[in-house]
C-alpha cells in the first residue's frame, strides 16, 4: 500500500493503456448539405430519407461527405470525412489544439458568426415557449482571446507513467495534452509548460485529480492542487514550486470531505468591479463562484445599471447573490439592497465585502431552490428582484414572483433553456419581457449567457405571447 499512486517502472505496471473510444458505428452517409446550426453548434442536415443528421464542425451551406459514428432512432450523429465546399463564415481555428480539445467547439466559425448564432439560439428558445423577444436584442461582447481568468485542468497518468495535463476531448474522458490555450489569460497560459514539468517531478502524480488556476487583481496567480491522498513529499515539492514561480499555491485534500491547506503564504484574493461612483473590491477564496470573463461581467453590471436607472427609489432584492458581484456593484443605485445566498460561507464573504467597501447591504442565507416564508416576506418587501441562478434556473422563485407585487425582475442566466422556461412563468403572472441581451461570456464555445428584464404592464404595456397571436399552440418542435 505504501507505493499506491506513486511512480513505478513500466515493467511492474499492470494498468491497461487508455485508448480513444471507438465510434459505435462507421457507416457512410454520402454527401449532405448543412441547413443550419443546432443549439450546440453542430451542423444539421437531412439524409436521403429525411432523417436528421448532426454533423460535427460543419457550417450552414457547406456540402460535406460524412461518416455516421452514432445512430439513434430519430437522428444520427456524424463527422466530416471531406468538406466539398466552405461557408463564408468558416475561418481557420486560432488554437493549435482546436481539432482535439473539447473546450472550444466553435473556433471554425467566425467570431461574428458565433455571436449571431448565440443570439438566434436565445431567441429560438424563447420562441419555443411562445415568447417573442424584443426587437433589439443586444450583444455584450469583448475580447475573444485571453479572456479566461479561471480554469480547471485534468491530470492523468498513463500506463507508461507519463503525466498528461489538459482538457477533456469532446464527448470523451480522454485528456488532450495542452501547452498553450488561446482563451486562457496570458499569465495562466504561460504557466502550463511549467505545471507539466512540476507534475513530472512528483512522487505520486496519480493522487492529483486536477489543478485549478485562478487569476485575480494585481496579476495574482493561484494554483489549487486537488490532492486525492495526502503525500507530504509532494506537498513540499508544490511549496518549492510556489516559491520559485512567485505564485500562491494550496492543496485541497481528500475525496469527499475536503480540506483546503495553503502551502504558500495565504494571499489576499480580490477582484474589482466598477460601481456607479467608485471601484468595488470583492474578496474571494478558491472555490467561490467568479465569472470567468471579467470584461463581460462588467458589461452585465453596466447594462443592469442602465436598465434599472429609473428605479433609484426602488428597493432591490438580489437572489443567488454569491460574494456580492451584482448587489455591491449596484448598492449605490438603489434606496435599499438585500442580498440572499444559499451558502453560509458566501453570505459571510458578502457581509465582509460590504464592510470592506463601506456599503449598507443586508445579507441573508436561505434555500432558494425550495424557498419558504423568509423569501416570500423579502419578495413582498422589495420593488425589484435580481436573479443570477445556477444552470437549473429559478423556477420556484419565479412562481412566487409571478404572484407577487414586484414590478421588475432582472434575470442573469447561464442557461437559455432555463431562462425561457422561467420567462414563461413570469409572463403568465403578468410580466412583460421588455429588454434582452446575449452576453458572449465564452467566445469560441456554444455556451451563452443572457440578461433579461421583465416589467409589469404598468411600465411598458400588456405582455404578448405568440399563442395569443396565432391559432396554433405555442410549442417547440425541431432539433
Automatic annotation (TrEMBL):
Residues 1-24 are annotated as: Disordered. PROSITE patterns: SAM_MT_RNA_M5U, TRAM, TRMA_1. It comes from Salinicola lusitanus. CDD domains: AdoMet_MTases (cd02440). This is 23S rRNA (uracil(1939)-C(5))-methyltransferase RlmD. Its EC number is 2.1.1.190. S-adenosyl-L-methionine binds at residues 291, 320, 325, 341, 367, 388. The gene is rlmD. [4Fe-4S] cluster binds at residues 95, 101, 104, 181.
Amino acid at each position: 500500500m505504501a507505493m499506491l499512486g506513486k511512480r513505478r517502472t513500466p515493467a511492474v505496471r499492470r494498468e491497461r493503456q487508455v485508448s480513444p473510444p471507438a465510434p459505435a458505428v462507421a457507416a457512410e452517409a454520402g454527401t449532405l448539405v448543412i441547413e443550419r446550426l443546432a443549439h450546440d453548434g453542430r451542423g444539421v442536415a437531412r439524409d436521403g430519407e429525411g432523417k436528421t443528421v448532426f454533423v460535427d464542425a460543419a457550417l450552414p451551406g457547406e456540402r460535406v461527405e460524412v461518416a455516421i459514428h452514432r445512430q439513434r432512432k430519430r437522428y444520427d450523429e456524424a463527422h466530416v470525412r471531406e468538406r466539398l465546399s466552405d461557408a463564408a463564415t468558416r475561418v481557420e481555428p486560432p488554437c493549435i489544439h482546436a481539432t482535439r480539445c473539447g473546450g472550444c467547439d466553435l473556433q471554425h466559425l467566425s467570431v461574428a458568426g458565433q455571436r449571431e448564432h448565440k443570439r438566434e439560439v436565445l431567441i429560438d428558445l424563447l420562441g419555443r415557449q411562445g415568447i417573442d423577444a424584443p426587437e433589439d436584442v443586444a450583444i455584450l461582447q469583448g475580447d475573444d482571446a485571453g479572456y479566461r481568468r479561471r480554469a480547471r485542468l485534468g491530470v492523468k497518468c498513463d500506463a507508461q507513467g507519463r503525466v498528461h495535463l489538459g482538457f477533456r476531448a469532446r464527448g470523451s474522458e480522454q485528456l488532450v495534452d495542452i501547452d498553450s490555450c488561446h482563451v486562457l489569460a496570458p499569465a495562466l497560459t504561460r504557466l502550463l509548460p511549467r505545471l507539466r514539468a512540476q507534475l513530472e517531478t512528483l512522487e505520486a502524480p496519480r493522487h492529483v485529480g486536477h489543478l485549478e488556476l485562478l487569476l485575480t487583481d494585481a496579476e495574482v496567480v493561484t494554483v489549487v492542487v486537488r490532492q486525492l491522498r495526502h503525500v507530504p513529499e509532494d506537498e513540499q515539492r508544490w511549496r518549492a514550486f510556489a516559491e520559485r514561480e512567485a505564485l500562491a499555491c494550496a492543496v485541497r485534500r481528500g475525496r469527499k470531505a475536503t480540506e483546503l491547506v495553503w502551502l504558500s503564504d495565504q494571499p489576499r484574493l480580490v477582484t474589482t468591479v466598477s460601481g456607479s461612483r467608485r471601484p468595488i473590491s470583492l474578496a474571494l477564496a478558491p472555490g467561490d463562484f467568479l465569472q470567468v470573463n471579467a470584461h463581460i461581467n462588467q458589461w452585465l453590471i453596466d447594462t443592469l445599471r442602465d436598465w434599472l436607472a429609473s428605479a433609484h427609489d426602488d428597493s432591490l432584492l438580489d437572489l443567488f447573490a454569491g460574494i456580492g458581484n451584482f448587489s455591491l456593484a449596484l448598492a449605490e443605485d438603489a434606496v435599499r439592497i438585500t442580498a440572499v445566498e444559499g451558502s453560509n460561507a458566501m453570505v459571510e464573504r458578502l457581509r465582509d465585502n460590504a464592510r470592506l467597501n463601506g456599503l449598507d447591504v443586508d445579507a441573508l442565507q436561505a434555500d432558494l431552490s425550495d424557498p419558504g416564508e423568509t423569501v416570500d416576506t423579502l419578495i413582498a418587501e422589495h420593488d425589484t428582484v435580481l436573479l443570477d441562478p445556477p444552470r437549473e434556473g429559478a423556477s420556484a422563485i419565479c412562481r412566487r414572483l409571478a404572484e407577487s407585487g414586484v414590478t421588475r425582475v432582472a434575470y442573469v442566466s447561464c442557461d437559455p433553456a432555463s431562462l425561457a422556461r422561467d420567462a414563461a412563468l413570469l409572463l403568465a403572472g403578468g410580466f412583460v419581457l421588455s429588454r434582452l441581451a446575449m452576453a458572449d461570456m465564452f467566445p469560441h464555445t456554444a455556451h451563452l449567457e443572457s440578461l433579461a428584464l421583465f416589467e409589469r404592464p404598468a411600465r411598458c404595456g400588456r405582455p404578448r405571447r405568440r399563442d395569443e397571436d396565432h391559432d396554433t399552440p405555442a410549442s417547440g418542435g425541431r432539433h
